[in-house]
Amino acid sequence: MEPAAGNPGFLRNVLVRLLLFGLIIVIIRFAYVITLAGESCTVGDFCFFSPSLNLAIAGPGSAALAASAAAAPDRYASKDWINAVRFYSSVFNDLVAGGYLSPAAKSLCVETPTGRDVLALREVGVADAVGISKKASPPLVKSGETRRIPFANGTFDFVFAGDGALEKAPRPAEFAAEVSRTLKPEGFAAFHVKAKDTYSYNSFVDLFNFCCDLVKITDMEGFDSSMPHIREIVVKKDRFGIDSNSDSNSNSNGKCSVPGYKLELVRNAEALIEEEPLKPWITLKRNVKNVRYLPSMVDISFKSRYLYVDVGARSYGSSIGSWFRKQYPKQNKTFHVYAIEADKTFHQEYGVKKGVTLLPYAAWVRNESLVFEINRDPGEKVQGKGRGMGRIQPLQSSNGFDGGEVEKIPGFDFADWLKKTVSKNDFVVMKMDVEGTEFDLIPRLFETGAICLVDEIFLECHYNRWQRCCPGQRSPKYEKTYDQCLQLFTSLRQSGVLVHQWW
């Protein structure tokens, strides 16, 4: 009897079962790695492809990406890298769904040292995507800076700035201008920023008013501790040639209305000292520790320039060096200083101070010659380099002075100078100590609309205060009362101007 031939059906069944068993093992392992461990296939020792190959098959341009990943496998396989790519992929998918981004969009990511957002764009199907950073990281990132983006006008349909890039920019206005320049008409730009307060939001809007409309705001959780909370803002380019420094709050007469969000800041300021202090030289000085500085309440990142205007500066050490440089919270911004001082005694020292522009004139309500008087309170002594505080009057009215040193000096229209020098996109801090002239200058700032260009004022109001030298006697230098000073401060705050009592 012939031996029975092997059953081919039996062999097939064995092979199929082995293959199914192997497939089940793969599926279980994949489910564990991706779903439970929340990692890539690099977890443990079970991986079918090398990290570089896994990255390469993730999207277009696989050969170049594989070569790049092979050069730096640790970066591309790290948990931080993978989490970031997943996060940005989700963000871009939402933008695609909202109609702000399309797979055909030529796209640019700015200030992206690693190119995680570039890879995420390619993963969601936006094949024509590239990034720029100061240091290139091929093939995802080219060398380039936002102050001069290395692409022609109207190159991109979509521009993305993540990781708070706009907030960190030393010149946000230049950043905004370059994004607008390289964006096509009807193109979109998306920004990830930290700030959520109304001041920074309006500052952001002002940066792009010259070219773009805000079309989307979304608050979301970040993917790491550097930005745990993110505000995504999307703008659409729809106009050209509009002056970004034009003041939308001004009317045809030059006057302005302080925007409502600034009124909210005033409500959060420290209380005014309503009762006249018996020792103002002590009370007002101590009050400085109660001041709620604007940068302590809001983010000031989205401003074009940062300026400190010291009206009545006297010596550099009077307030610029001793207070503003050391104590004012600047959020790591570099401020340029304008020192306005008519007294020539102090002029020479400013010649060697960096970042300071001296205006050797008297701040006034128009351009004309003035008389400058040095007149001290009884018992006041000359100390060091200084001399008595100086008051000014128009030349024809100088008969009202009473025996102090008198000099003829040039005066200039301060409000007009301010409007020509700064814009609403600048962050402007002002200190004013002008020996009674504040009752002329402040109304002029309102009349011309220049007051809307100032973000924060430290004002010393001069009145017939009690004298330090002579108990029971008031200073004969000034006619105004403390109540009139209080009215001036109150009217400023009611108008939405963040003003503090200076000493």
Model description:
- This protein is of the alpha/beta class and 503 residues long.
- It is 32% helix and 20% strand.
- The chain contains 15 helices and 17 strands.
- The strands form 3 sheets. Strands 3-2-1-4-5-7-6 form a 7-stranded mixed beta sheet.
- Strand 16, helix 15 and strand 17 form a beta-alpha-beta unit.
- This is Methyltransferase.
Question: Quick recap of the structure?
Answer:
This is Methyltransferase. The chain is an alpha/beta fold. Helix content is 32%, strand content 20%.
Structural class: alpha/beta
Main beta sheet: 7 strands, mixed
Measured as a percent range, the helix fraction is: 25-40%
Tally of domains:
2
Transmembrane segments: 14-34
Domain DUF7870: 269-365, 409-503
Keywords: Membrane, Transmembrane, Transmembrane helix
Pfam families: DUF7870, Methyltransf_11
